Amino acid sequence: MAFGLKENESIAAGICRASRQQLKRANREMGELPGDSAVHDIRKRFKRVRALARLVRASLGERRYRSSNKAVRDAGKPLAELRDAEATMGALERLVRRGRVSETAAKTLRDELSAHYDVAREGSFEAESQDTIHGLLRKARKSVRKWKIGSAGWKAIEAGLTDTYEKAQQAFLAAAIDPSISNLHEWRKQVKYLWNEIEFIKRLRPRALGRLAGSLHRLGDLLGDDHDLAVLVQTFEKSQAANKAAVVEELAPLIHEQRRRFEQKAFRLGEQLFEPQVRQFVKQLKRTSRRKRRRTATSS
């Protein structure tokens, strides 16, 4: 089933349903570990629930929001290092396919990244980590079942959507001033939250919101590819490879060039998405929502 509102479902009811559903599926997929696809799917579901919690933060109240968000966030932490290890291996293979890395450097990098991946995998799937994730997931599901959202319509999410967009916009401006790895990574996180929120409500006006969701997804991918290359270099620089200096010397300019391209595309897209004022952005989505509801009411 697609992630999003159902036909004729209120926003508040949909958020509660989808959040419970995502955690239920994550719990089921825990049984599929240590499969790599399960790691990706579980982390995706956790991010969706955290994005929805942000949407209705004002309605939930700060205490309920923080409790739910912390449980879901902490449940995903044991899988974060493994995700980075998988992503850096993928980033290396994309460079190799472009013919940009020598055979000697590619073998050294594969050996080091593979060893790092094995360590991360072992740590993520040891019994203690699994018990931790299961425990936090149970806590999160219990917390989400208690969610009470007073407003059923747009009022339930207006403040949350405003806040998410504003944070993504601020992260964009910070990265534009100082495109450090940490600033770019923060921008990517905020873009992902906004993308999940727009993806969830896009049924309100599929064409317009679908285009916006597509642009946010593209931006998240660009920033993700950039981050994976940065982590690849950081991971290898910590290694004990005998020819590390020679490999870094070969790799650094290639990665610098590729990251520059990713970042140029990301900033161009960011200027389009985050140029509007926050109020203008949210008011436009609000009008979109009202038009959709009026058409639905007229046709019923």
Structure notes:
The protein has 300 residues and is mainly alpha-helical. It is built from eleven helices and no strands. The protein is globular and about 60 Å long.
Structural class: mainly alpha
Oligomer: single chain
Total strands: 0
The overall pLDDT, averaged over residues, is 86
Classify the helix fraction into a percent range.
over 70%
Order of helices and strands: HHHHHHHHHHH
**What Rg do the Cα atoms give?**
21 Å
Largest sheet: none
* Net shape: globular
**Unreliably modeled segments:** 293-300
Brief overview:
The protein is mainly α. It contains 11 helices and no strands. Helices cover 82% and strands 0% of the residues.
Observed structural traits:
300 residues; mainly alpha; globular; disordered C terminus
Please write out the topology.
Blueprint: H1 11-29, H2 36-55, H3 57-60, H4 62-97, H5 103-125, H6 127-145, H7 158-177, H8 181-201, H9 206-237, H10 244-273, H11 278-299
Helix pairs in contact: 1-2, 1-6, 2-4, 2-8, 4-5, 4-6, 4-9, 5-10, 7-8, 7-11, 8-9, 9-10
